[in-house]
Automatic annotation (TrEMBL):
This is Sec translocon accessory complex subunit YajC. It is a single-pass membrane protein. The chain crosses the membrane at residues 6-33. It comes from Algoriphagus yeomjeoni. Belongs to the YajC family. GO terms for biological process: protein transport. It is found in: Cell membrane. One of its GO terms (cellular component) is plasma membrane. Keywords: Cell membrane, Membrane, Protein transport, Translocation, Transmembrane, Transmembrane helix, Transport.
Length: 105
């Protein structure tokens, strides 16, 4: 009888180890497929915004296409057309759409 109880305890213990392994692997997969790529994208976006300079062609989040005429701290003056300038925040410039505009040229 004691050997039966011990056998059941050992069999039950291996199930817990399998569950811990499964849970750990799910967390690892989520890190590599969701969290890590998002962190890389945030770093690229931050670097892009910091490196904006006069003459760059950019697209805002709202869809305005323009050329940077000046950079003033956290704001950027965009020239949309000859004589038409708009002041926008650097955070309103989209990295994704600006890259697409550069590759089309």
């Amino acid at each position: 009888m004691i050997s039966t109880v011990l056998a059941q305890a050992v069999a039950g213990g291996s199930g817990i180890l399998g569950q811990v392994f499964l849970f750990g692997s799910i967390i690892l997969i989520m890190y590599f497929f969701m969290i890590r790529p998002q962190q890389k994208k945030q770093k690229e976006s931050k670097k892009f915004i910091e490196e904006i300079k006069k003459g760059d062609e950019v697209v805002t989040i709202g869809g305005l296409h323009g050329k940077v005429s000046s950079v003033e701290g956290d704001a950027v003056m965009l020239e949309l057309d000859r004589g038409l300038k708009v002041k926008v925040e650097k955070s309103a410039i989209s990295l994704d759409f600006s890259k697409k505009t550069e590759t089309k040229k």
